[in-house]
Amino acid sequence: MVNYIYSHRDKVRDYECDVQGIVNNANYQHYLEHARHEFLLAHGVSFMDLHNRGTDAVVARITMQFKTPLRSRDEYDVKIWVKKEGLKWVFMQDIFRVEDDKLCVRAQVDTVCLINGRLGDSEELNEIFLPLIGQ
Questions:
Q1: How far apart are CA 39 and CA 33, in angstroms?
Q2: What percent of the chain shows pLDDT beyond 90?
Q3: How far apart are CA 32 and CA 91, in angstroms?
Q4: CA 125-131-42 angle, 5° bins
Q5: Assuming Cys at both sites, which of 73, 84, 90, 104 could form a disulfide with 95, CB separation 3.0 to 4.6 Å?
Q6: 3-class state of residue 96 by DSSP
Q7: Given this model, what pLDDT does residue 3 score?
Q8: Looking at 18, 74, 94, 110, which residue is catalytic?
Q9: Is the pTM of this model over 0.70?
Q10: Residue 16: count of CB within 10 angstroms of its CB
């Protein structure tokens, strides 16, 4: 059992679907990113404010497993749990279709921080997120 620490609900829009009537695979990355930004905002961290203070949290790697397709107007939940590995923040994100709680996508998003353009450890993010993950 995964202990998710955040969930963001949204709905598929018609224009996100391809000719087969399912969400185009590239749009899942948008769903994942939007959920991470909402996660930050829910904890008082603005992605833009971080940038303005010289810290850029950037994606280093994404691995996605596609399980069940979403279709137009499907509601979905993006659920997140996070772990820290050295300088990396690893976001484990699962997308579930609300109607039947079917897993649609399982993703691992490895992020790092550039502080004034150099790879580093963000004390601000550590102070906020380490207590959430019990570290």
A1: 10
A2: 90
A3: 10
A4: 60
A5: 104
A6: strand
A7: 87
A8: 18
A9: yes
A10: 18
C-alpha closest to that of 109 among 77, 85, 128? 85
1-34: pLDDT as tens digits: 678 999 999 999 999 999 999 999 999 999 999 9
Q: How far lies 26's CA from each of 22, 23, 33, in Å?
A: 11, 8, 11
SS3 state of residue 53: coil
Virtual torsion, Cα 57, 61, 63, 69, nearest 10 deg: 50
Gap between the Cα atoms of 95 and 68, Å rounded: 10
Rounded distance, CA 61 to CA 74, Å?
27
Q: Helices (DSSP H) in 43-94: which residue ranges?
A: 47-52
Known catalytic residue at 18? yes
- Here the tokens at position 70 are 């979403």
pLDDT of residue 133: 85
